[in-house]
Each structure stands twice: as structure tokens, then as C-alpha cells.
């Protein structure tokens, strides 16, 4: 009701936050998103980006896969299936691949497609050890032009980057400083 009044007055549907006193939920009904539980209110920048996404987000059919990054049919199919899942309003997807099948390249191509389609604001790439993080960083830098930073005690306040790479222990120390 209140959101309807704001929409009539300002010509833009607001993002709805509601709480029961214990849990906080967000509901972007203008995008046909189901309500979901969140762990804190969005910052002003994140709310502005959410409104930007409403106007600038590409449809699933418009998402382009970079065939310079992935060229195998099963890799391309995997990315298409994940994008289709997200398009059906799911917020999670699981992709399982065997050793040597190009998991990192699929992840890079998926990140590239989602960034260019404006479906995501930031990407967190988690690794279980530093060696894998270093390999992934080099691979990302070979294919994606988006700004990238390794999360650490020195860099966790930097918010202008699009891709964040971290090990689990590093992220565990700083995750509460990120809003969404």
C-alpha cells in the first residue's frame, strides 16, 4: 500500500524492505522477484545500483558468451543453463565439472557475461588456497577488463572494483564490511 503511494507520487516503484523485528526481507516486486531474507539494509549506493539495474539490465536472450574464453560446446551449454536458471528468478546455481574440463574458464566467461548484461554489481571468486587464487587472478586478467582486487586486510575497504578474489580465511575476516 505504502509502496503503491510512493510509486504514484514519484513515478518509480520502490524496493520494499520489511521486518518482523528479527529478520529483514527485501522484495523487488517491480522485477517479479520473490521476497528474500537479507542480513542488513542496503547502502545508498547499492539501492541506486538496484534501480540502475531495473532500467539497464539485459534480458537472458541478449546475454552474449565470449567464445574467446570458452569454445567447447559443453562449456557454452553450461553457461546458458546457469543464465536460464537465474532468469527464472533463482539466486543460486551449481555447476559440477571434472578435472581438466575448464572450470576456471567457464567461471570467467559466466562472470564476463553477467557483468556485461548488468545482472551483477560485484563478483566474489573464492578459492581454498592462495595458489589457486593466483592462478585464477592471472586467468581473469587475461580475459576480462573489469577491475579486480585480492581481498585482504589492506584492500577490504576498496569498493570500486567489480571482481573480488579471496581465500576462505581472508573473506571470513572481512565479510561483514560488505553490504550486498
What report would you give on this structure?
The chain has 180 residues and is α/β, with parallel strands linked by helices. The protein has three domains: 1-41, no CATH class; 58-119, no CATH class; 122-180, no CATH class. The protein is built from six helices and six strands, in the order αβββαααβαββα. The chain has helices at residues 2-10, 44-56, 73-87, 103-116, 130-143, 168-174; strands spanning 16-19, 24-27, 36-38, 123-127, 148-150, 163-167. The strands form two sheets. A three-stranded antiparallel sheet has the order 1-2-3, with no helix packed on it. Strands 4-6-5 form a three-stranded parallel sheet. A hairpin with an 8-residue loop joins strand 2 and strand 3 (36-38).
Short description:
The chain has 180 residues and is an alpha/beta fold. Helix content is 40%, strand content 13%. Strands 1-2-3 form a 3-stranded antiparallel beta sheet, with no helix packed on it. A 3-stranded parallel beta sheet has the order 4-6-5.
List the helices and strands and how they pair.
Layout: H1 2-10, E1 16-19, E2 24-27, E3 36-38, H2 44-56, H3 73-87, H4 103-116, E4 123-127, H5 130-143, E5 148-150, E6 163-167, H6 168-174
Parallel strand pairs: 4-6, 5-6
Antiparallel strand pairs: 1-2, 2-3
Helix pairs in contact: 3-4, 4-5
Can you count the helices? 6
Global geometry? globular
Q: Strand order across the biggest sheet?
A: 1-2-3
Give the low-confidence spans: none
Spell the H/E element sequence: HEEEHHHEHEEH
Estimate the mean pLDDT confidence.
89
Percent helix: 40-55%
Number of domains: 3
Strand content: 5-15%
Amino-to-carboxy terminus distance: 26 Å
Radius of gyration: 18 Å
Going by helix content, strand content and strand pairing, the class is: alpha/beta
Largest sheet: 3 strands, antiparallel
Number of strands: 6
